[in-house]
Recover the amino acids of this structure.
């Protein structure tokens, strides 16, 4: 009964989404304020019904209702409760429902927090959100209904993919989807602006906090995914350039470019068309990711059950949303009035360079991801599209990006005085240079070009990130009154520095040993000795495992005992490697069981990963900074107050010149 | 002319859609490989582990055999590797490898570190041999009967479920027919 209620709720949600689209778009077009105003409550209702549907599916999982095909396919009566709840989004249909839930939630939030925005614009934004929702709900009901019954019901379910039975995976998809779907808001704002044919500073100010929120969620989502892959896939890498990872990373790159481009549009009224294009692209790439993951066009570790009908449907949706938006762009963008220029050396130039580098990186990654498709269509030349390609095409734009970031942060709008900039920054540049030259040599007794460049760039960005807030604090002994956007920008860039240091340290100083060990054997990795005690069999709730015991010592003192496992999940019978990790901020010790070699001996993967935590810490810092930036008071200015100050750069005072 | 550049994104997207559309129908998971039921394409490639030695398709004749196409840059190959090790230990069927668009040192290092489940591994850095086999991505796994006819092809990581439902019954059928 409850699954049927869920199904009905989903149908009602679709009808409400349809009316949300109608009221939102028809209201402003036919100039009926009553219709426009209706879009908000209808949007909230739409959210409520998706919630009901979602709750119904969760209920079916919790009570082990295996007469629901989706539950039978993705759960099992011995699955712990936590994973029964998170298993709701462990497969195609459920994750789609989560996606729809997030989309409706963003729509409802928009309904609540757009009081300061003129009704006509807010209604259009909600209308576009409604159209996107219609697409997804329709897709779900037509091809991927999570409430389909399975009669007769099986006695037990096929269990959740063991890879997904992990605490990190509980929050990874919701965060990621919040990010993906959050870009729908920027997309909707862009469509609304293109319908109106007007993009101004005020518009950019409305979009910025929404974009920042989506971007922050996406950052956390990607970082969690990377962290999960690191300890769950069992080979100690933290990024694999898998098509699905790329599918999440490309919207992130474009989203980052969008955040910066929005700053220019808000402060200077420039880059208008460009900002629109980025807003459309960020969400388009999110949709594209959905298509790639769910249509079976590309093969990936993460692939969902694939089906050509679904592929066709999503492709049609892509054509409608992306094609429609880009056609609107081609029509409207040339008409956008743009005035005001900037000197070759100015903050605008740096942000333009930032945008170019992000877009180039995205295009190269997009090409690499789709290469198998192109190859198939044309029979082109031969490059192996794996991590070597992606590492190369990502590092080339990133190095100048990080270098210029330090300069760009301290440049000024319109025109920057080079001698002033140089005077301000050269001590930090020199300091970073000496640090990168000396510290790795002293601490690690190794020198290498990539080590030097990586440390140099990371330290450089971190060193210059807080110059201005610190100066302000030294003068005033307080940070109140200092622009929060500015603090957010400094902090996010500091996070980039942490990330760069983390990547450099792991990739250049990390040690990986793969060796066969008999019980009693000891191996030395860096300053640590690893002694293999032996293995024993253990039983988990829904798996059996062989658990190894490894004692780690440093200078004769015991650091920890690690218990890596090799699990076999009873239902799906996949062998899974469960690595054991001892984590500290400055290093991880990673032990994974490989293959049995006979007579109690095992091949073991032992890794020393210096500063790998900084990779995820950096991402977390960036995300928190973006959330903090949303609290800037300029986003709370009431509509009445800003009517008179729509001129670009209208907000007075030097301290307002943040860009983050 | 000026407004033409604003059309570029839409045009680029259209080109992408054409590829996506074709990709949907080229998908080897949906359309069975045209090679199924046909003799396996012949190849003569260098042995990955012993440069100078040749590995040929004919090596696999005489009994049911499995050919796994893999590469070190492919994440799915990592995922299926523990299962391949299991399969090799079980000795159910000889497992041959074809190393696809890879570099020898990387591939050898992989086998040394993760274990080597293969009877022999053909080294195909240019993808010439794999091209005849219609290899689309990796991992791909082919099942051949004793006469070298391709009986089944699996795209994506191999696992116990696929093995149980698709490979094992076919192997059993071949062995039944052979007796």
């Amino acid at each position: 009964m409850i699954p049927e209620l869920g199904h009905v709720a989903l149908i009602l949600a679709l009808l409400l989404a349809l009316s949300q689209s109608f009221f939102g778009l028809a209201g402003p077009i036919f100039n009926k304020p009553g219709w426009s105003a209706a879009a908000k409550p209808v949007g909230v209702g739409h959210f409520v019904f998706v919630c009901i549907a979602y709750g119904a599916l969760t209920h079916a999982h919790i009570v082990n209702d295996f007469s629901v095909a989706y539950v039978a396919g993705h759960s099992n009566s011995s699955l712990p409760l936590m994973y029964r709840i998170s298993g709701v989004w462990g497969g195609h249909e459920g994750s789609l429902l989560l996606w729809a839930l997030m989309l409706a939630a963003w729509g409802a939030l928009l309904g609540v927090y757009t009081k300061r925005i003129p009704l006509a614009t807010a209604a259009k934004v909600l209308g576009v959100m409604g159209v996107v929702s219609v697409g997804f709900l329709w897709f779900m009901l037509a091809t991927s209904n999570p409430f389909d019954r399975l009669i007769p019901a099986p006695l037990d379910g096929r269990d959740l993919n063991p890879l997904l039975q992990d605490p990190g995976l509980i929050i990874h998809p919701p965060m990621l989807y919040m990010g993906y779907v959050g870009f729908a808001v920027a997309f909707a704002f862009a469509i609304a602006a293109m319908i109106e044919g007007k993009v101004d500073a005020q518009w950019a100010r409305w979009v910025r906090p929404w974009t920042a929120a989506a971007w922050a969620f996406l950052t956390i989502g990607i970082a969690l995914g990377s962290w999960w892959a690191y300890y769950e896939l069992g080979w100690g890498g933290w990024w694999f350039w898998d098509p699905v990872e790329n599918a999440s990373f490309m919207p992130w790159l474009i989203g980052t470019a969008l955040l910066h481009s929005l700053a220019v549009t808000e402060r200077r009224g420039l880059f208008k068309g460009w900002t629109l294009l980025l807003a459309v692209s960020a969400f388009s790439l999110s949709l594209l990711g959905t298509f790639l993951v769910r249509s079976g066009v590309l093969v990936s570790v993460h692939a969902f059950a694939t089906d050509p009908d679904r592929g066709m449907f999503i492709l049609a949706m892509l054509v409608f949303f992306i094609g429609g938006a880009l056609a609107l762009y081609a029509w409207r963008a040339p008409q956008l009035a743009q005035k005001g220029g900037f000197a070759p050396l100015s903050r605008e130039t740096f942000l333009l360079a930032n945008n170019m580098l992000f877009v180039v990186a995205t295009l190269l990654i997009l090409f690499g991801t789709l290469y198998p498709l192109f190859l198939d269509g044309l029979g082109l030349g031969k490059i192996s599209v794996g991590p070597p390609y992606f590492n190369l095409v990502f590092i080339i734009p990133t190095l100048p990006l990080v270098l210029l970031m330090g300069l760009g942060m301290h440049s000024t709008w319109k025109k920057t005085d080079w001698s002033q900039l140089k005077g301000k920054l050269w001590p930090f540049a020199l300091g970073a240079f000496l640090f990168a030259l000396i510290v790795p040599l002293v601490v690690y007794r190794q020198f290498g070009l990539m080590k030097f460049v990586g440390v140099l760039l990371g330290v450089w960005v971190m060193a210059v990130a807080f110059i201005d807030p610190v100066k302000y604090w030294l003068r005033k002994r307080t940070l109140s009154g200092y622009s929060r956007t500015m603090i957010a920008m400094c902090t996010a860039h500091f996070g980039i520095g942490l990330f760069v240091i983390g990547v450099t340290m792991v990739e250049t100083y990390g040690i990986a040993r793969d060796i066969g060990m008999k019980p009693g054997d000891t191996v030395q990795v860096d300053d640590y000795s690893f002694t293999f005690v032996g293995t024993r069999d253990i039983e988990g709730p829904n798996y059996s495992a062989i658990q190894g015991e490894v004692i780690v010592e440093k200078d004769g003192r015991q650091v920890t005992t690690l218990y890596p496992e090799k699990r076999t999940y009873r239902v799906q019978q996949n062998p899974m490697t469960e690595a054991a990790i001892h984590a500290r901020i400055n290093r991880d010790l990673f032990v994974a069981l490989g293959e049995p070699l006979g007579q109690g001996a095992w091949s073991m993967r032992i890794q020393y990963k210096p500063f790998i935590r900084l990779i995820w810490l950096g991402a977390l810092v960036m995300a928190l900074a973006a959330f903090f930036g949303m609290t800037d008071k300029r986003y709370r200015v009431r509509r009445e107050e800003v009517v008179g100050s729509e001129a670009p750069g209208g907000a007075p005072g030097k301290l307002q010149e943040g860009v983050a | 002319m000026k407004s033409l550049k604003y059309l570029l994104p839409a045009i680029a997207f259209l080109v992408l859609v054409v590829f996506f559309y074709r990709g949907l129908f080229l998908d080897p998971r949906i359309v069975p490989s045209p090679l199924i039921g046909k003799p396996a394409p012949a190849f003569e490639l260098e042995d990955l582990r012993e440069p100078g030695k040749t590995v040929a398709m004919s090596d696999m004749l005489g009994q049911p055999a499995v050919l796994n196409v893999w590469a070190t840059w492919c994440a799915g190959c990592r995922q299926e590797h523990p299962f391949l090790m299991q399969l090799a230990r079980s000795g159910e069927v000889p497992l041959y490898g074809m190393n696809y668009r890879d570099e020898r040192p990387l591939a050898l290092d992989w086998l040394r570190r993760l274990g080597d489940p293969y009877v022999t591994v053909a080294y195909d850095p240019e993808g010439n041999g794999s091209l005849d086999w219609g290899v689309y991505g990796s991992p791909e796994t082919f099942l051949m009967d004793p006469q070298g006819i391709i009986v089944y092809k699996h795209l994506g990581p191999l696992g116990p479920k696929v093995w149980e439902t698709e490979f094992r019954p076919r192997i059993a059928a071949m062995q039944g027919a052979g007796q």
Q: What stands out?
A: Residues 201-232 of chain A form the longest helix (32 residues). Confidence is low (pLDDT under 50) at residues 299-305, 380-384, 639-660 of chain A. Chain A touches chain B through 55 residues (CB under 8 Å). The longest strand of chain A covers residues 528-539.
